[in-house]
Amino acid sequence: MTDFETAAAAVAEAALAAQRASGALAAASDTQIDTALRAMASRLGSSAEAVLAANRRDVEAAQASGMGTGLLDRLRLTEARLADMGRQLQILADTPVPPARHRVRELPGGLVVEEVRRPVGVIGANFEARPNVTVDIASQLVKSRNAGVLRTGTAALGSAVALVDHVVGPALADAGLDPDAVQLVRVPGRHAATALVQQPATLPLVILRGSGTSTRELATAAAVHGVRTLAHADGGAVIYLDASADRALAAELVAASLDRLGVCNRLNLLLVQQSIWDEVVPATVDQLAALEPKINASLPPHDHPLGYEWALAEGSEATVTIAPAADAADAARIANEETSGLAAAIVAEDRNAAQTFLTTYAGTGGFWNATPRLLDGFKLLAVPETGINIDRVPGPRGPVTFRDLYLRQYVVTPAQA
User: Fold this and answer.
1) Exposed, middle or buried: residue 331 (CB in 10 Å: 0-12, 13-18, 19+)?
2) Cβ contacts of residue 28 below 8 Å, gap of 6+?
3) pLDDT tens per residue across span 320-338
4) What is the set of domains in the chain, with CATH numbers?
5) CB–CB of 126/209 below 8 Å?
6) Minimal CB count within 10 Å: which of 1, 223, 242, 335?
7) pTM, rounded to two decimals
Protein backbone atom coordinates (compact mmCIF):
# COMPACT_ATOMS: atom_id res chain seq x y z
CA MET A 1 0.00 0.00 0.00
CA THR A 2 1.04 3.61 -0.54
CA ASP A 3 1.59 5.89 2.45
CA PHE A 4 -1.79 7.52 1.81
CA GLU A 5 -3.56 4.16 1.60
CA THR A 6 -1.98 3.12 4.91
CA ALA A 7 -3.13 6.35 6.55
CA ALA A 8 -6.61 6.11 5.02
CA ALA A 9 -6.99 2.54 6.29
CA ALA A 10 -5.99 3.64 9.81
CA VAL A 11 -8.49 6.50 9.76
CA ALA A 12 -11.27 4.26 8.43
CA GLU A 13 -10.59 1.65 11.13
CA ALA A 14 -10.62 4.31 13.87
CA ALA A 15 -13.84 5.85 12.51
CA LEU A 16 -15.63 2.49 12.48
CA ALA A 17 -14.52 1.72 16.04
CA ALA A 18 -15.75 5.14 17.20
CA GLN A 19 -19.00 4.67 15.32
CA ARG A 20 -19.64 1.35 17.08
CA ALA A 21 -19.16 3.07 20.44
CA SER A 22 -21.13 6.20 19.60
CA GLY A 23 -24.61 4.85 20.34
CA ALA A 24 -23.84 3.95 23.94
CA LEU A 25 -22.10 7.28 24.47
CA ALA A 26 -25.11 9.19 23.12
CA ALA A 27 -27.33 7.34 25.57
CA ALA A 28 -25.04 7.79 28.58
CA SER A 29 -26.38 9.48 31.69
CA ASP A 30 -25.17 12.85 32.91
CA THR A 31 -23.58 11.07 35.85
CA GLN A 32 -21.56 8.76 33.59
CA ILE A 33 -20.37 11.62 31.42
CA ASP A 34 -19.24 13.76 34.34
CA THR A 35 -17.68 10.77 36.09
CA ALA A 36 -15.58 10.17 32.98
CA LEU A 37 -14.42 13.80 32.94
CA ARG A 38 -13.49 13.72 36.61
CA ALA A 39 -11.64 10.46 36.03
CA MET A 40 -9.65 12.15 33.26
CA ALA A 41 -8.69 14.89 35.71
CA SER A 42 -7.63 12.32 38.28
CA ARG A 43 -5.64 10.26 35.80
CA LEU A 44 -3.75 13.31 34.59
CA GLY A 45 -2.26 13.33 38.06
CA SER A 46 -1.75 9.61 38.56
CA SER A 47 -0.33 9.12 35.06
CA ALA A 48 1.78 12.28 35.02
CA GLU A 49 5.08 10.41 34.99
CA ALA A 50 4.21 8.41 31.86
CA VAL A 51 2.70 11.40 30.08
CA LEU A 52 5.60 13.73 30.86
CA ALA A 53 8.14 11.09 29.83
CA ALA A 54 6.44 10.71 26.44
CA ASN A 55 6.31 14.48 26.10
CA ARG A 56 10.02 14.84 26.88
CA ARG A 57 10.78 12.45 24.03
CA ASP A 58 8.61 14.51 21.69
CA VAL A 59 10.27 17.77 22.77
CA GLU A 60 13.78 16.35 22.42
CA ALA A 61 13.02 15.11 18.91
CA ALA A 62 11.49 18.46 17.98
CA GLN A 63 14.52 20.35 19.30
CA ALA A 64 16.82 18.09 17.30
CA SER A 65 14.80 18.88 14.18
CA GLY A 66 15.19 22.63 14.76
CA MET A 67 11.65 23.50 15.90
CA GLY A 68 11.33 27.17 16.91
CA THR A 69 10.82 28.50 20.42
CA GLY A 70 7.12 29.32 20.09
CA LEU A 71 6.18 25.93 18.66
CA LEU A 72 8.27 24.18 21.31
CA ASP A 73 6.34 26.07 23.97
CA ARG A 74 3.06 24.74 22.54
CA LEU A 75 4.49 21.21 22.44
CA ARG A 76 5.87 21.13 25.97
CA LEU A 77 3.91 19.75 28.93
CA THR A 78 4.81 20.40 32.55
CA GLU A 79 3.37 19.33 35.88
CA ALA A 80 1.79 22.78 36.17
CA ARG A 81 0.17 22.49 32.75
CA LEU A 82 -1.16 19.03 33.57
CA ALA A 83 -2.60 20.38 36.81
CA ASP A 84 -4.26 23.22 34.90
CA MET A 85 -5.74 20.73 32.42
CA GLY A 86 -7.10 18.76 35.36
CA ARG A 87 -8.74 21.84 36.89
CA GLN A 88 -10.42 22.63 33.59
CA LEU A 89 -11.78 19.09 33.38
CA GLN A 90 -13.23 19.36 36.87
CA ILE A 91 -14.95 22.63 35.95
CA LEU A 92 -16.28 21.09 32.74
CA ALA A 93 -17.71 18.18 34.72
CA ASP A 94 -19.54 20.67 36.95
CA THR A 95 -20.93 22.63 34.00
CA PRO A 96 -24.63 21.95 33.35
CA VAL A 97 -25.63 20.64 29.94
CA PRO A 98 -28.40 22.55 28.14
CA PRO A 99 -31.72 20.67 28.14
CA ALA A 100 -31.90 17.99 25.45
CA ARG A 101 -35.28 19.31 24.36
CA HIS A 102 -37.46 22.34 24.84
CA ARG A 103 -40.89 23.40 23.69
CA VAL A 104 -40.89 25.99 20.89
CA ARG A 105 -44.60 26.67 20.34
CA GLU A 106 -48.04 25.16 19.98
CA LEU A 107 -49.58 24.45 16.57
CA PRO A 108 -53.26 24.33 15.64
CA GLY A 109 -54.91 20.98 16.18
CA GLY A 110 -53.42 20.30 19.60
CA LEU A 111 -49.84 19.84 18.38
CA VAL A 112 -46.60 20.99 19.97
CA VAL A 113 -43.25 21.84 18.34
CA GLU A 114 -40.16 20.83 20.30
CA GLU A 115 -36.51 21.45 19.49
CA VAL A 116 -34.33 18.43 20.27
CA ARG A 117 -30.54 18.44 20.61
CA ARG A 118 -28.95 15.31 19.13
CA PRO A 119 -25.27 14.34 19.03
CA VAL A 120 -23.60 14.38 15.62
CA GLY A 121 -22.38 10.82 16.17
CA VAL A 122 -18.66 10.76 15.33
CA ILE A 123 -16.63 13.95 14.90
CA GLY A 124 -13.11 14.10 13.53
CA ALA A 125 -10.50 16.57 14.72
CA ASN A 126 -7.18 17.54 13.19
CA PHE A 127 -5.03 19.82 15.32
CA GLU A 128 -1.56 21.23 15.78
CA ALA A 129 1.28 19.59 17.71
CA ARG A 130 -0.08 20.78 21.05
CA PRO A 131 -0.72 17.92 23.50
CA ASN A 132 -3.23 19.67 25.76
CA VAL A 133 -5.59 19.99 22.78
CA THR A 134 -5.88 16.19 22.77
CA VAL A 135 -7.61 16.37 26.14
CA ASP A 136 -9.48 19.60 25.36
CA ILE A 137 -11.16 18.13 22.29
CA ALA A 138 -11.69 14.67 23.76
CA SER A 139 -13.42 16.17 26.80
CA GLN A 140 -15.66 18.38 24.67
CA LEU A 141 -16.67 15.42 22.53
CA VAL A 142 -17.48 13.31 25.57
CA LYS A 143 -19.43 16.15 27.24
CA SER A 144 -21.48 16.56 24.05
CA ARG A 145 -21.93 12.76 23.81
CA ASN A 146 -20.10 12.52 20.49
CA ALA A 147 -17.51 9.88 19.68
CA GLY A 148 -14.38 11.14 17.97
CA VAL A 149 -11.34 10.44 15.84
CA LEU A 150 -8.36 12.64 16.71
CA ARG A 151 -5.29 13.36 14.58
CA THR A 152 -2.46 15.56 15.84
CA GLY A 153 0.76 16.93 14.38
CA THR A 154 3.49 14.30 14.17
CA ALA A 155 5.70 16.16 16.65
CA ALA A 156 3.13 15.59 19.43
CA LEU A 157 2.06 12.07 18.52
CA GLY A 158 3.91 10.36 21.36
CA SER A 159 2.36 12.71 23.91
CA ALA A 160 -1.11 12.22 22.41
CA VAL A 161 -0.73 8.42 22.54
CA ALA A 162 0.19 8.64 26.22
CA LEU A 163 -2.78 10.91 26.98
CA VAL A 164 -5.28 8.68 25.17
CA ASP A 165 -3.86 5.40 26.53
CA HIS A 166 -3.26 6.51 30.14
CA VAL A 167 -5.92 9.19 30.64
CA VAL A 168 -8.83 9.41 28.18
CA GLY A 169 -9.50 5.75 27.42
CA PRO A 170 -9.15 4.46 31.00
CA ALA A 171 -11.32 7.33 32.29
CA LEU A 172 -14.12 6.35 29.93
CA ALA A 173 -13.85 2.77 31.18
CA ASP A 174 -13.91 4.03 34.78
CA ALA A 175 -17.34 5.52 34.06
CA GLY A 176 -18.66 2.36 32.39
CA LEU A 177 -18.28 3.83 28.89
CA ASP A 178 -16.60 2.27 25.88
CA PRO A 179 -13.00 3.59 25.63
CA ASP A 180 -13.21 3.12 21.86
CA ALA A 181 -15.44 6.20 21.74
CA VAL A 182 -12.34 8.41 21.46
CA GLN A 183 -9.88 7.19 18.85
CA LEU A 184 -6.43 8.51 17.98
CA VAL A 185 -4.92 8.10 14.51
CA ARG A 186 -1.46 6.74 15.26
CA VAL A 187 0.00 6.99 11.76
CA PRO A 188 2.41 9.94 11.52
CA GLY A 189 2.45 12.34 8.61
CA ARG A 190 0.09 14.61 6.70
CA HIS A 191 -1.63 11.79 4.80
CA ALA A 192 -3.69 10.97 7.89
CA ALA A 193 -5.01 14.54 7.99
CA THR A 194 -6.06 14.34 4.36
CA ALA A 195 -7.74 10.98 4.91
CA LEU A 196 -9.65 12.38 7.89
CA VAL A 197 -11.64 14.78 5.69
CA GLN A 198 -12.55 12.16 3.09
CA GLN A 199 -14.89 9.93 5.11
CA PRO A 200 -18.35 11.56 4.93
CA ALA A 201 -20.25 8.41 5.87
CA THR A 202 -18.46 7.95 9.21
CA LEU A 203 -16.97 11.40 9.85
CA PRO A 204 -19.55 13.95 8.66
CA LEU A 205 -17.97 16.80 10.67
CA VAL A 206 -14.26 17.50 11.21
CA ILE A 207 -12.78 20.17 13.46
CA LEU A 208 -9.71 21.70 11.82
CA ARG A 209 -7.01 23.61 13.69
CA GLY A 210 -3.47 24.53 12.77
CA SER A 211 -1.53 26.68 10.36
CA GLY A 212 -3.58 28.74 7.95
CA THR A 213 -2.40 27.25 4.65
CA SER A 214 -2.66 23.59 5.62
CA THR A 215 -6.02 24.06 7.35
CA ARG A 216 -7.48 25.87 4.37
CA GLU A 217 -6.26 23.07 2.08
CA LEU A 218 -7.93 20.49 4.32
CA ALA A 219 -11.17 22.51 4.40
CA THR A 220 -11.17 22.59 0.60
CA ALA A 221 -10.60 18.84 0.38
CA ALA A 222 -13.38 18.28 2.91
CA ALA A 223 -15.84 20.33 0.84
CA VAL A 224 -15.01 18.27 -2.24
CA HIS A 225 -15.78 15.06 -0.35
CA GLY A 226 -18.96 16.31 1.33
CA VAL A 227 -17.49 16.67 4.82
CA ARG A 228 -18.47 19.71 6.91
CA THR A 229 -15.76 21.48 8.89
CA LEU A 230 -15.35 23.84 11.81
CA ALA A 231 -12.06 25.45 10.88
CA HIS A 232 -9.62 27.45 12.95
CA ALA A 233 -7.06 28.34 10.29
CA ASP A 234 -5.71 31.77 11.16
CA GLY A 235 -4.99 33.80 14.25
CA GLY A 236 -3.10 36.86 15.36
CA ALA A 237 -4.56 39.42 17.73
CA VAL A 238 -4.56 43.21 17.37
CA ILE A 239 -4.18 45.92 19.99
CA TYR A 240 -4.85 49.56 19.11
CA LEU A 241 -3.39 52.27 21.37
CA ASP A 242 -5.63 55.31 21.19
CA ALA A 243 -4.33 58.80 22.00
CA SER A 244 -6.47 58.66 25.16
CA ALA A 245 -4.93 55.40 26.37
CA ASP A 246 -3.64 55.16 29.91
CA ARG A 247 0.06 54.58 29.19
CA ALA A 248 0.65 52.28 32.16
CA LEU A 249 -2.38 50.16 31.28
CA ALA A 250 -1.24 50.01 27.66
CA ALA A 251 2.16 48.67 28.69
CA GLU A 252 0.51 46.15 31.01
CA LEU A 253 -1.82 44.83 28.30
CA VAL A 254 0.95 44.61 25.72
CA ALA A 255 3.01 42.46 28.08
CA ALA A 256 0.02 40.34 29.10
CA SER A 257 -0.76 39.67 25.44
CA LEU A 258 2.70 38.22 24.85
CA ASP A 259 2.87 35.77 27.75
CA ARG A 260 2.94 32.90 25.21
CA LEU A 261 4.21 33.34 21.68
CA GLY A 262 2.96 30.16 20.01
CA VAL A 263 -0.77 30.70 20.55
CA CYS A 264 -3.24 32.19 18.10
CA ASN A 265 -4.60 34.97 20.32
CA ARG A 266 -1.26 36.55 21.25
CA LEU A 267 -0.47 40.12 20.22
CA ASN A 268 0.49 40.08 16.57
CA LEU A 269 -0.23 43.60 15.30
CA LEU A 270 0.09 46.70 17.48
CA LEU A 271 -1.60 49.77 16.01
CA VAL A 272 -0.72 53.18 17.44
CA GLN A 273 -2.66 56.38 16.78
CA GLN A 274 -0.56 58.54 14.50
CA SER A 275 -0.79 61.59 16.79
CA ILE A 276 1.10 59.77 19.60
CA TRP A 277 3.44 57.70 17.41
CA ASP A 278 6.62 59.60 18.24
CA GLU A 279 5.84 59.52 21.95
CA VAL A 280 4.69 55.92 22.33
CA VAL A 281 6.54 53.79 19.79
CA PRO A 282 10.14 54.24 21.05
CA ALA A 283 9.06 53.39 24.59
CA THR A 284 7.07 50.38 23.34
CA VAL A 285 10.03 49.08 21.33
CA ASP A 286 12.17 49.33 24.48
CA GLN A 287 9.48 47.55 26.49
CA LEU A 288 9.30 44.69 23.99
CA ALA A 289 13.07 44.32 23.99
CA ALA A 290 13.04 44.07 27.79
CA LEU A 291 10.55 41.19 27.86
CA GLU A 292 11.63 37.57 28.30
CA PRO A 293 12.07 36.40 25.65
CA LYS A 294 13.04 39.60 23.87
CA ILE A 295 10.39 40.66 21.35
CA ASN A 296 11.49 42.23 18.09
CA ALA A 297 9.43 45.10 16.66
CA SER A 298 8.68 45.10 12.95
CA LEU A 299 8.37 48.80 12.12
CA PRO A 300 7.34 50.58 8.90
CA PRO A 301 8.06 50.19 6.08
CA HIS A 302 7.00 46.54 6.30
CA ASP A 303 8.12 43.89 3.82
CA HIS A 304 5.28 41.59 4.89
CA PRO A 305 1.47 41.86 5.15
CA LEU A 306 0.37 43.72 8.28
CA GLY A 307 -1.53 40.66 9.47
CA TYR A 308 1.35 38.21 9.00
CA GLU A 309 0.98 35.71 11.85
CA TRP A 310 4.25 35.57 13.76
CA ALA A 311 3.16 32.65 15.96
CA LEU A 312 3.57 30.38 12.92
CA ALA A 313 6.90 31.87 11.74
CA GLU A 314 9.52 29.41 12.95
CA GLY A 315 12.52 31.30 14.22
CA SER A 316 10.69 34.65 14.18
CA GLU A 317 7.90 33.98 16.67
CA ALA A 318 9.27 36.67 19.00
CA THR A 319 8.09 39.48 16.73
CA VAL A 320 5.28 42.04 16.79
CA THR A 321 4.29 44.25 13.87
CA ILE A 322 3.81 47.91 14.79
CA ALA A 323 1.92 50.23 12.43
CA PRO A 324 0.14 53.60 12.58
CA ALA A 325 -3.60 54.25 12.47
CA ALA A 326 -5.32 57.59 12.00
CA ASP A 327 -7.96 56.99 14.66
CA ALA A 328 -10.18 54.30 16.18
CA ALA A 329 -12.25 53.85 13.02
CA ASP A 330 -9.12 53.49 10.91
CA ALA A 331 -7.65 50.98 13.38
CA ALA A 332 -10.81 48.87 13.22
CA ARG A 333 -10.72 49.05 9.41
CA ILE A 334 -7.12 47.83 9.36
CA ALA A 335 -8.01 44.98 11.73
CA ASN A 336 -10.96 44.03 9.51
CA GLU A 337 -9.10 44.20 6.22
CA GLU A 338 -5.55 43.14 7.08
CA THR A 339 -5.96 40.44 9.73
CA SER A 340 -7.76 37.14 10.19
CA GLY A 341 -10.53 38.71 12.26
CA LEU A 342 -9.72 36.65 15.35
CA ALA A 343 -9.54 39.33 18.04
CA ALA A 344 -8.82 43.04 18.43
CA ALA A 345 -8.57 45.31 21.46
CA ILE A 346 -8.59 49.06 21.97
CA VAL A 347 -6.81 50.71 24.88
CA ALA A 348 -8.58 54.02 25.46
CA GLU A 349 -10.05 56.23 28.15
CA ASP A 350 -12.21 57.96 25.53
CA ARG A 351 -15.55 56.13 25.55
CA ASN A 352 -16.51 57.43 22.11
CA ALA A 353 -13.28 56.12 20.58
CA ALA A 354 -13.85 52.73 22.21
CA GLN A 355 -17.44 52.51 20.99
CA THR A 356 -16.39 53.50 17.46
CA PHE A 357 -13.73 50.79 17.45
CA LEU A 358 -15.99 48.06 18.83
CA THR A 359 -18.91 48.83 16.51
CA THR A 360 -16.66 49.04 13.44
CA TYR A 361 -14.57 45.93 14.14
CA ALA A 362 -16.33 42.88 12.67
CA GLY A 363 -14.02 40.16 14.02
CA THR A 364 -14.79 37.34 16.39
CA GLY A 365 -13.79 39.05 19.64
CA GLY A 366 -13.65 42.75 20.53
CA PHE A 367 -12.01 44.05 23.72
CA TRP A 368 -11.80 47.42 25.48
CA ASN A 369 -8.99 47.89 27.98
CA ALA A 370 -8.56 44.12 28.12
CA THR A 371 -6.13 41.68 26.57
CA PRO A 372 -7.25 39.76 23.46
CA ARG A 373 -5.70 36.68 25.09
CA LEU A 374 -9.12 36.40 26.75
CA LEU A 375 -10.51 35.07 23.46
CA ASP A 376 -10.21 31.52 24.70
CA GLY A 377 -12.93 29.02 25.56
CA PHE A 378 -11.88 28.57 29.16
CA LYS A 379 -11.02 32.21 29.88
CA LEU A 380 -14.13 33.57 28.19
CA LEU A 381 -16.76 30.88 28.78
CA ALA A 382 -15.28 28.80 31.64
CA VAL A 383 -15.14 25.61 29.56
CA PRO A 384 -12.38 24.27 27.28
CA GLU A 385 -12.74 24.76 23.55
CA THR A 386 -12.25 22.62 20.47
CA GLY A 387 -11.01 25.68 18.59
CA ILE A 388 -12.01 29.21 17.66
CA ASN A 389 -14.20 29.52 14.59
CA ILE A 390 -13.75 32.86 12.79
CA ASP A 391 -16.05 32.20 9.82
CA ARG A 392 -18.17 35.18 8.77
CA VAL A 393 -21.27 33.09 8.22
CA PRO A 394 -24.04 31.86 10.56
CA GLY A 395 -23.10 29.02 12.86
CA PRO A 396 -20.94 28.64 15.97
CA ARG A 397 -18.47 31.54 16.00
CA GLY A 398 -15.74 32.25 18.49
CA PRO A 399 -14.65 29.56 20.95
CA VAL A 400 -16.46 26.33 19.98
CA THR A 401 -17.45 24.27 23.02
CA PHE A 402 -19.55 21.19 23.71
CA ARG A 403 -22.68 23.35 23.49
CA ASP A 404 -22.06 23.77 19.75
CA LEU A 405 -21.46 20.12 18.86
CA TYR A 406 -25.01 18.96 18.29
CA LEU A 407 -27.66 18.65 15.61
CA ARG A 408 -30.94 20.52 15.92
CA GLN A 409 -34.04 18.45 15.28
CA TYR A 410 -37.67 19.58 15.32
CA VAL A 411 -40.22 17.15 16.63
CA VAL A 412 -44.00 17.65 16.43
CA THR A 413 -46.20 15.65 18.79
CA PRO A 414 -49.71 15.81 20.24
CA ALA A 415 -49.77 18.20 23.17
CA GLN A 416 -50.88 15.49 25.59
CA ALA A 417 -48.33 12.88 24.45
Assistant:
1) buried
2) 145, 175, 177
3) 999 999 999 999 999 999 9
4) 3-233+397-414 (3.40.605.10), 237-377 (3.40.309.10)
5) yes
6) 1
7) 0.90
